[in-house]
## 1
Amino acid sequence: MGNLFLTGRGMASIIDVARLAGVSPATASRVLSGSPHAVSASTRQQVEAAAEELDFVPNALARGLLKRRAPIVGVIVHDITDPYFSEIARGIEDAAEASGHLVIICSSDRVPQREESYVRLLRSMQAAAILFAGSGIRDAGLEEAAARHLSAMERSGAAIVHLSPSFRGPALVGVDNVAGMAAIVRSLVGMGHRRIGYLGGPERLYVAADRERGYRDAMNEAGLAVDTATVLRTTFDVAGGADGVERLIRADAGVTAVACANDLLALGALDRLTELGVSVPTAISVTGFDDIPGAARTAPGLSTVHLPLRDLGRAGFQHAEKLLSGRRPHRRELPFDVVLRGSTAAPRRASRLEITAPAALAGAR
Amino acid sequence: MGNLFLTGRGMASIIDVARLAGVSPATASRVLSGSPHAVSASTRQQVEAAAEELDFVPNALARGLLKRRAPIVGVIVHDITDPYFSEIARGIEDAAEASGHLVIICSSDRVPQREESYVRLLRSMQAAAILFAGSGIRDAGLEEAAARHLSAMERSGAAIVHLSPSFRGPALVGVDNVAGMAAIVRSLVGMGHRRIGYLGGPERLYVAADRERGYRDAMNEAGLAVDTATVLRTTFDVAGGADGVERLIRADAGVTAVACANDLLALGALDRLTELGVSVPTAISVTGFDDIPGAARTAPGLSTVHLPLRDLGRAGFQHAEKLLSGRRPHRRELPFDVVLRGSTAAPRRASRLEITAPAALAGAR
DNA sequence: GCGCGAATGGAAATCCTTTTCACGAGGCCG
DNA sequence: CGGCCTCGTGAAAAGGATTTCCATTCGCGC
């Protein structure tokens, strides 16, 4: 077959449609792009019929070139395979789809250079927005390059949104990591724990620093010592958590609980404790942070700080949309929630004795 | 400050660079786009210095408009939150990044209309390739529209790659789902199970059909009856698995093992069985499919069919690259692996008695 | 009957880059 | 020493859609 109005073997352009409809490209554009310019009903119909007939799909590149903006948003994550990030990404995607935007996923693997390369690529694609889902990484080189790219993009009207703390300061849309960690540590204290170890994330991650500060705040507040031997920093993943608890246990500092900087760490810790025959929560309590899907399915269920990750993604995109439409949205803070499952309990008697009047306790029991 | 050579407040264009370097845009382009065309060393250096000075980032939209192709690939998944898909997506991303492509994630939620809308969007963006990570959905409306879009894209040189079976036939790059399921069911049979239930996925998913066929094949091959009451189809997620096993158990058909069409179903099944106080594998064995990260972390560990998901993604992108460079790559089949963990064991004696000579068994034990 | 505004449609510029095509200079071979 | 080839560079077109001006027509009030 082959339609005679088609310019070549490629896709039909708006010129082809205009020709078939017997109108100018300008008119066809007005109909097809929903312009406010008046077009008579009959002409409109002609154009729509022609577009349908030719299976016309507008070239977003041409449109974007003119508008200086492509209908895409980039999301910088550390690893899309990490449920924390895929949940956020999904929230962004849902909100983006509603406004016709496509979402580009960029897993930086926490390598500054890879992150910069992605930002550059997104900039070259004239992305409408970039959302940083993952925490910033303290790195002079990256931050200099990133600052340059980001301010250039903002100057040209793109939206930049941080969902976690970064070198640009606290997140535009995010949760209070300090308060969240402090809250769950406080509930550990409330159960009677006194020697609480901490398994932190990489030192260079801003979010890891915030969470560690929350831990220290809560400990200080309760008048408890933070032993340097019981605060460990490791990689932000399951393997890090497994090795971390083991080191913590072997240091034999008598900790009765371990607060982990995120759920992945806690999952790894749970695994290793099981392997080591250390029972949770009888011998030791474990807490996580984030409440990723799957945190509830461990045995025992993981006590953690629930974050509304999908909402965070959605809210992040909405923030970007406001920025794009010229408004100046407020910082937005989403609520967290301490959820206690089976991985935490009061410490064993022996431990309690250390911290309570022995006689009183013995008598009560 | 503000550089006088900048046209406006926007980003520097190649024309600005050319002007600053004192050459024509053509020459600047040749330097900056790595064209094979000869350019003298001194000119080249001038241009590079100017580009650096102006923080020039090429406009990928303009380039794409000319080349009729944007350096982006779309990945259609059912849900990026599902570890099965995020693993594949990550593999694609890794391979794509190596060749300067960006990856767009499209979660269809298995809604045909949403899938079509995404394909249309990708087409309008002149995506270089679309990879279908999720299985096709049997749906006349979608398939008609999809066929139209896809053949149009292929005609214009884009690459379309299916990683799972679809209405276009078996996957271009994929695994043998029939054989995989048959293999794990066979190992259940080998352990002595005779009444093996099946928890399948949505009827309209091609991949679900394949896996169910594998189950039936293995059962027939072993001369075992497939009772319609012990084959259930449900949604492809944790909730479906939980409800599914419960129905299976309550039907009281005496099954000693349940093969699940994927790991999410198996995870749900494990959860519910625990809640119900049915011990795994003592009372009942459970198997999954895919070996998502986390399948090893259940208690007991999930026996499943390991799929090299990340490799699958990588191989899929490489296939697309070959297609784009005009080659005609072969179908590629990746290996699977039955991995037995704690969720499977030989059935209890009572069950064995049904199928083995009672005297012999009793004597042996 | 004249003029004015609304309605409608077209011509052309614009967005930025790549890629022919053309041109001049210089080197080499015959 | 003339013709030819190579090298280096520039001018201009192309790619597809939008949008700013204009131009035309029609209806209508005076």
Note: Residues 1-8, 351-365 of chain A have pLDDT under 50 and may be disordered.
## 2
Amino acid sequence: MREADRPLVVNRIVQAGLELLEEDGIHAITQTQVAKRCGIRQSHLTYYFPKATDLLLAVFSASHAKALPLDSAVHDPIGVLRAVMFDPTRMRFFLKIVAELPDDPDIRSTVADHAHTWAHTLGPFFGRTSSDPDLLIFVDMVRGRAIRHILRTEGQAPSKAELLALAARLSLRPVNRG
Amino acid sequence: MREADRPLVVNRIVQAGLELLEEDGIHAITQTQVAKRCGIRQSHLTYYFPKATDLLLAVFSASHAKALPLDSAVHDPIGVLRAVMFDPTRMRFFLKIVAELPDDPDIRSTVADHAHTWAHTLGPFFGRTSSDPDLLIFVDMVRGRAIRHILRTEGQAPSKAELLALAARLSLRPVNRG
DNA sequence: ATTGCATTTGGTACTTTACCAAGTTCTGTT
DNA sequence: AACAGAACTTGGTAAAGTACCAAATGCAAT
């Protein structure tokens, strides 16, 4: 179902989920609370999102899309990567979804595709093709680093310069784009 | 409370949690099911583990300890790392805990310490001090890679050789120990 | 014996999810 | 317009789970 074809109520549902996510965190994204916020019945929510995970996934997708405005991602991919990966709420959300992911391969590849989006965004920046495995390793590295960040919130998130230094460890260096 | 000082019930509780984890996965670790398995009341469980996360954390700790029998970890740290990180059940468990971690700094540092355990295990193997930041980066990298593994279960987990190759990207090379 | 503490029970209020059966609204067709 | 069928919406419910609380029990030191 393309976004444009979706019933309005689905958009309202996802929007409510986004708001709850930003205001109260992951735990607020429940059928009960989302339904209350957009004025429909909880049972109606399971009509569009039969499993609780389906709703989570939809909100996650929307959140991801919102965080990746294409122009800024192209202009400053490291900045966007940093903003998305080291936002604890967003990262926790991602981890929760990965942790609870049902075995359905469709659902899994939906999330996996989001991961590959990074390779497409970073490829041109580092002068690599988006299938370059080093890009995936770099993303792995940053994700792992972000988890460490969640565990030790006292410290600052790595700066863009530090992230570039990490990339350099894998011989990934920004190319001059003019 | 040291493990030795713990009431026997607590050991039984954690043990039941471990069994459920291995048999039915993360979702089985609930007060209700654990209580049923070790023949106590659910309300009694909240006496020892006031929050549901506390129980999760205890089972996670036990599971981690069980997976790191010291001798084999020293003898073959990469093998142990591989076994622990690329076991989907275990990794999901870890991610779930990180995702749901309450803000209590004590609890967070408990989990963070488990991460640092890896640095201590890997340090001698790579001829580095356990505070060497490269070790942490390597662990980050492997963790990130493991997440990717969860998302694409078709593929095999990286072999030990591949993990060593990853380490080499960070100039981490095993030292000869004789 | 009694006091104080840890343990254990039983009960309850609340939240969340996944159903279902029954309505209602919308749509295209005749 | 009238109809049939699909899409949508409601209300209700059963099951599982969490976090409380008040009361009972056991146990140890005074």
Note: Chain A touches chain B through 33 residues (CB under 8 Å).
